[in-house]
Design brief:
Bound molecules: flavin-adenine dinucleotide
Strand content: 15-25%
Oligomer: single chain
Largest sheet: 7 strands, mixed
Number of helices: 14
Radius of gyration: 26 Å
Helix content: 25-40%
Number of strands: 23
Structural class: alpha/beta
Length: 483
Amino acid sequence: MGTYDYDLIVIGGGGAGMVSANLAAGLGKKVAMVEKRQLGGECTFYGCVPSKTLIKVANTVHHARELLEKTGHGNGASVFREIGSSVMERVRSVRQKVYEGERPEVFEKRGINVHFGDATFVDNHQITINGKKLTAAHFVLATGSRAFVPPIDGIDGVPYLTNENLFDLERLPASMIVLGGGPIGTELAQALTRLGVQVTVVEMLDQILIREDVELRDIFARRLAGEGTKILTKTKAVRLGQENGKIALVVEDQAKNQGQVVADTVLVALGRKANVEGLQLENAGVTYTPKGIKTDETLRTTASNIYACGDVVGPYQFSHMAEYQARIATRNALLPLAKRVDYTHYIWCMFTDPELAHTGLTEEEAREQYGDGIKVYRWEYKATDRGRTDGEEVGLSKIICDGKFRIVGAHILGSRAGDVIHEIQAAKTLGLPLYKLDSVIHIYPTFSDVIKQPAKLAYIDWLRSRFYVRLASMFLGRNKAQG
Ligand SMILES: Cc1cc2nc3c(=O)[nH]c(=O)nc-3n(C[C@H](O)[C@H](O)[C@H](O)COP(=O)(O)OP(=O)(O)OC[C@H]3O[C@@H](n4cnc5c(N)ncnc54)[C@H](O)[C@@H]3O)c2cc1C
């Protein structure tokens, strides 16, 4: 280790940083983790955990309300209003529970020293935190990202929300403008609508959720609008102000016609900005752009002893991708034989209701890449027995294969899509053609039918494409004709 205080200092104690520190400690290295706020980072405090808790409550309310209405028992308005107003308390208590497993003591027990404060590089082996100097042979940068707030005219004069202060609200507002129809804006828009907030989503592009498979995205968007979320696409937010204690947003359509949307509050969900400021990365020779820290395929930065991972690097800003990168960055920082990142099997899920899970190419992307020789296998949730028992009206799977039945993409809109998709993800990652899944025994009755049935269809297609099967059917066909 030479004369350094540590083998590795990890900067940032979010998902990526915690994985990195744990792995390095597991390898028997002397490790420190530096965090400027609380360990746990965005996922625990302002991202996955609070948003998924909010979504769970919102969905429970929605389905209970539907049941009451369907069975002629009213709409439970007063009860649900009560639940809606206490939802943020539940959100905060769940994130506290998650944080219990991420407290500094948990890491200290594993031999990881935790330091709180802003880290600033002196050179590529030395940082200062609150005036204290720490040195390390290697660093892993995992400082994450935050909400990107564009310079919309008037934005600094209004009390806007981002994912960082939304979950601190004591009561839900009656109405909200959500700027941005990406995954974060859409998940929150649906949950808040279900909790009784009048939500208007403002999206500049032609559609919300532009990275999703068009067919599934459109089904979901219709459902969202049907539940009462107002969606303004091809609409630009041009000016924010306040009127009679409310937020007034001037919007403009593509023909430059202006209009106004008024609501109690506004949530900015317009993308992410990498946390690179204040680290004095220049002193360490680490190059970055406003999009994040530059790395090579081994996640090494332009300084040879410094690696980076997670949202501060991208391109896929999800907790599971941050964890994947953290393992590779840490391993490469500390061990010989560098491993490269491979994003072929990127995956994500939008935790709306129904969930929309995504791995690999969409149908449109696959057609562009492979031409019309691709095969698209699909199965509707309502055509499965579990879908029937559970009354699933909406949802389907689409599994896209190349000419050799290799899975190049899969998209599932439906209950538990984020769980169900893993069978396809495993097959895709392991290079198994879709028809092989036909030989897997699946539990009955489960939503896994939306994978099993397409696998059966692929198996039949594969059999029919075999030379001996074609020959046999030709022969049998001739015999039949003769007989
Ligand atoms: C509303 C919302 C919902 C989301 N839901 C999901 C989901 O369901 N599934 C999913 O996979 N992903 C989800 N994400 C994305 C996920 O939260 C991020 O991809 C993940 O948290 C990135 O982890 P990270 O460790 O790279 O960064 P972070 O979790 O942001 O951690 C970075 C840490 O570094 C610290 N830091 C920053 N600068 C310094 C400095 N100079 N010195 C010391 N410390 C510093 C920060 O305080 C922070 O704790 C969601 C995000 C949002 C906003």
